[in-house]
Design brief:
Strand content: 5-15%
Radius of gyration: 13 Å
Structural class: alpha+beta
Strand order of the largest sheet: 4-1-3-2-5
Distance between the termini: 16 Å
């Protein structure tokens, strides 16, 4: 699930505070961030300002573009729960809009 970098990084902060952030990757251009979400999320994802692409490839954990690395404590890739992410993105949009950095 991909969003603009400012919006995405604000959501990462919210999710990290809630200990609910899975793997997050910044694009090569630095203009977007992508959240790794469970398979099937794209079938029901409809949030303006974001896009969901099924079958995203994961880069090696050592790649410097990872905002949050993909490996959980047991070595598996940890996705972000789709509905928790939706809530964090909505909260991030409100925060950024209130700070004069929106609308989203």
């Amino acid at each position: 699930m991909t969003v603009a970098v400012r919006h995405g990084l604000e959501a990462v902060d919210i999710l990290r505070l809630r200990r609910a952030c899975g793997a997050v990757l910044q694009s090569r251009s630095g203009s977007t961030v992508s959240f790794y979400v469970p398979a099937g999320t794209c079938d029901t994802w409809h949030l303006p300002g974001s896009s969901c692409t099924p079958g995203a490839l994961l880069l090696p954990p050592a790649d410097p573009r990872w905002v949050m690395p993909p490996a959980a404590a047991d070595g598996s890739t940890r996705p972000t729960d789709a509905w928790v992410l939706r809530s964090a993105l909505c909260e991030a949009a409100c925060t950024l809009t209130a700070g004069g950095l929106g609308p989203f």
